[in-house]
Amino acid sequence: MSKKEERLNRLIEILKKQNGATIRDLAQVLDVSEMTVRRDMDTLKAKNVILDIPGAAVLNTQYAHDKEEDAYQLSMATRSHAKEKEQIGKFAASLIQPDDCVIIDNGSTVEYLADNIPKDTKMTVFTCNLNILNKICNNPNISIIFGGGYYHPDTTLFESAENITLIKNIRATKVFASAAGVHDTMGVTCMNNYELEIKQTIIQSGAEKILLADSSKFGVIKPCFLTNLDVFDRIITDTGLSEEWVQMIEDKGIRLDMV
Q1: What DSSP assignment string belongs to 120-181?
Q2: Which regions span the lipid bilayer (predicted)?
Q3: pLDDT score of 196 more than 70
């Protein structure tokens, strides 16, 4: 977890214990400048975690009691179901072949894929996620294509129109996609609207479309519709997936790996 993520989580915990705090008080408690606190508050306001009150930080009680699971922070998501996500990531990495060109999506599960990419396999990887870039940038066998743009600290995603154009010009052998929700009628969904175009373009640019999602994501609906489930050629999940979902996926002709 980065220092900023630790600080954001600590700020939230402080506000949970008291009704609110001034910027000056938070700067003193967190041992940072008031400017840093203001930037952190802007991040949390964008996620509807705190209320937009000038000069003060007040926790949104709707977030604190009703929507805590919906406030997506990558560091928190990565820790959730970590064992299952690690197994999924390891298996997904084992599918990479020499000279593959792969696209790694944005999300917590695909970070475990990046952790387990074979060190001795020559390949090309496209990503627009800073965490994934940091995990692969020192591997001399990986040719990296990185899309930049506006940085979203909650997901470590870079977003821009130029990024979309770059993705459209890539033809990948495999796309490793992630999702925040998978539903039988509402399809595959994600949390943030700014992710949508990047994720949709990534999926369209891969010959084999592989969805990485732990079993807790199935039956879940998140705000932003990404695509229909049957777009994917393969789904990798954990052994906690229900029999109903196993049957549904097999009926759609999608290859299912439960690891």
Answers
A1: T--EEEEE-BHHHHHHHTT-TTEEEEE--SEEETTTTEEE-HHHHHHHHT--EEEEEEE-SE
A2: none
A3: yes
pLDDT at 128 (0 to 100): 95
Long-range contacts of 121-124 (CB under 8 A, 24+ apart): 121/96, 121/97, 122/98, 123/96, 123/98, 123/99, 124/100
Sign of CA dihedral 112, 118, 119, 123: negative
Among 47-61, 116-130, 147-161, the minimum mean pLDDT is found in 47-61
Name the helix (H) or strand (E) containing 182.
strand 181-183
- What six digits make up the tokens of 203? 């999926």
Statement: residue 239 has pLDDT above 90: yes
Q: Which amino acid is at 47?
A: K
**Looking at this protein, which amino acid is placed at residue 57?**
A
Q: Within the chain, what is the greatest distance between any pair of CA atoms?
A: 58
Cα angle, residue 193 at apex, residues 152 and 61 outer, rounded to 5°: 80
Retrieve residue 158's tokens.
């870079």
Long-range contacts of 83-86 (CB under 8 A, 24+ apart): 84/214, 84/215, 84/216, 84/238, 84/240, 85/109, 85/112, 85/214, 86/112, 86/115
The answer to whether the pTM exceeds 0.85 is no
